[in-house]
Amino acid sequence: MDILRQFFAFAHVVYSCGIADKRKNRALDASEFSPRRSEAEPLHIQVSDFMRARIATGKWSPGTKLPSEPALSVELGVARGTLRRAVDDLASEGFLSRVHGRGTFVSNRPIETSMTTAFGTIADELREQNIEFTTSTISHRVVTLSSEDWLKRFNLDQPFPALQLQRVRSDKKGPIAYLENTVLIGPQGVDPRIAESDFDNIALFDRIEHLLGTRLGKGERLLSAVNSTARIAHLLKVPQNTALLYMEQKTFTSAGLDHPIEFSTVHINSSRMRVQAFVSR
Questions:
Q1: Which residue has the higher pLDDT, 84 or 10?
Q2: N or C: which end of the chain has fewer CB within 10 A?
Q3: Residue 42: closest CA among 4, 79, 69, 15
Q4: CA-CA distance, 97 to 110, in Å (whole number)?
Q5: What is the spatial distance between Cα 147 and Cα 39, in angstroms, rounded to a whole number?
Q6: Which residue from 128, 138, 99 is spatially nearest to 20, judged by alpha carbons?
Q7: Closest CA to 76 of 59, 103, 51, 58
Q8: What is the DSSP letter of 63?
Q9: Rounded Cα–Cα distance for residues 171 and 220 (Å)
C-alpha cells in the first residue's frame, strides 16, 4: 500500500488502538427506531443515521459491543443485509470498529481538528474538546541560523538568532504529535527572554503573544502525508514507516507580514487525530 493510500486509510482508524478486553457488554436499546418503509430514504441509511446519533450523543458509549447481526437486525426490525450495509458505513466513518473473533464495538472517535480552516494550535483544539494533555520537551536551545533554507523560510538575508524547540504532545492514551518550532528572537522577533520559559507548562503561542504584546494573526500551512522515520516512530510510539499527517507552518503577527515570527513542523499520528474541514459550494 503506497503512502497516500495508507494516509487516507488512517483517516478512518479509531482513536483507540484497541478495545479493552475488560469492557462489559452494554445493552443497546434500539426500541426508539422504527423503519419508515414508505419513505424514499433507503432503510440502511435510516439505520446508520439512528445508530450514528446514538453514538454521537453518548447513548452508545465507546467500547460498547453490538449484539450479533442477526439479533440486532431483529431488534431494529430490518433485514440482516440492511443492517450490514449500515454497519459497514459506520465502520468506514470510524464510529464502529470490527475486532476479528470478538465482534463489533463502538469506537473512540479520533480527535478532530479544524487546522485547515482556523488558526489554532493542537493545544487549542485539545483544550476546546476538554481533552487533558501533557507536553514533553525533547530539546530546548538558542541557535544562530544562517543556512539558505532558514533564511528563505523567514524571508531574511542575514543570519539570525532563534529559539528551537522539539516537543511531544500526548493525552492519556499516548503521543498525538511531535512538534518542532523555530521562533525568531531579537530585534526582528520575540524578546529573547522567551528562551527562559518552561514549555512543558506554558503554551508557546501564548508566550509569544505576551512578549510581543500583539496577536498572532496569520498562518500559512502546508499539509501532506509522510512515513515516520525511526526516531519519530519511537517518539510517537508507532511502527517505523507508519503514515503520518505532516504539517509545515509559518506564523505571522497581525501587523507584520514581511517575515514570519515562527516556523514549525508537526508530525501527527493520524490514527489519533484527523483534520476536519467544512466547505460550501
A1: 84
A2: C
A3: 79
A4: 12
A5: 66
A6: 99
A7: 51
A8: T
A9: 26
Section 163-177 average pLDDT: 94
pLDDT digits 0-9 by tens, 133-167: 999 999 999 999 999 999 999 999 999 999 999 99
Q: At what angle do helices 80-93 and 69-76 cross, to 10 degrees?
A: 110
CA distances from 249 to 75, 78, 164, 196 (A): 50, 49, 14, 23
Helix (H) / strand (E) containing 153: helix 148-153
Interstrand relation of 103-106 and 160-171 (parallel, antiparallel or unpaired): unpaired
Q: What is the pTM of this model?
A: 0.62
C-alpha cell, 256: 507584520
Q: Are 110 and 126 in contact (CB under 8 A)?
A: no
226 contact partners, CB below 8 Å, separation of at least 6: 3, 243, 244, 246, 267
Q: Judge whether 17 and 57 are in contact, CB under 8 Å.
A: no
pLDDT for position 198: 96
Q: Report the SS3 class of residue 164.
A: strand
